[in-house]
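Data deposition worksheet. Section B asks for the primary sequence of the deposited chain exactly as it was used as input, without tags or linkers unless they were present during the calculation. Section C holds the resulting structure in token form. Section D is free text for depositor observations; keep each observation to a single sentence. Incomplete worksheets are returned to the depositor.
Section A, Depositor: J.P.
Section B:
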Amino acid sequence: MDHAQTFGIQVTPHQADQFAVYAEELLTWNRKINITTITDPVEIAIKHFVDSIIPGQLISANDSVLDIGSGGGFPGIPIKILLPSIQMTLLDSSRKRVNFQRQIIRLLNLANISAHEARAEALHRHADFCGQFDVIISRAFSSLPQFLKIALPFVKNQGKILAMKGHISADECDQAILEIQKSYKNNVSIQKSLHYRIILYSLPNFDAKRSMVVFEC
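Section C:
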């Protein structure tokens, strides 16, 4: 996890050990079920772990965070390792992947984190989810308009929605906001005023270009 320092992120020896256990368990499970196509340990460290913790710099110590479409636990579990004081909720529709997430949570003895098997849309009116989160995050979950439509009912007023993508333009973000405004024009209870900024970065060693769109509600 030395590459985290490239982004000004400090990883403690204990956290580095947790990431090592995570990577080993990921490879073990991946032989039985399809969790990730990335199986090289260096690629796992950079493309999964380092990439996942970069948004941690936008999350406050006591925030409640919802990771939608968390798959192998990315980015939610790495962020939780980096910021142990946050409340993290993982959401994925695949039972096998949720079982894997729960296994990692047990192995690493992580507190204040839960993994749920459900489609996000089914929880829009659920009292434990609707309007309950300071930060909503997802990594390559869906198209930007679709992610915003799914995420908005979950975020608190003055909360953040973080969309981790490959290359994305301001035009795409503007178009996504227009689509959302049309979708919610008759629904005052979840209509939001969205402002965004795009953070561009590259992952070390692989020249992998990344974009993170930060929507503030």
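Section D:
The first helix runs from residue 13 to 30.
The mean pLDDT is 92.
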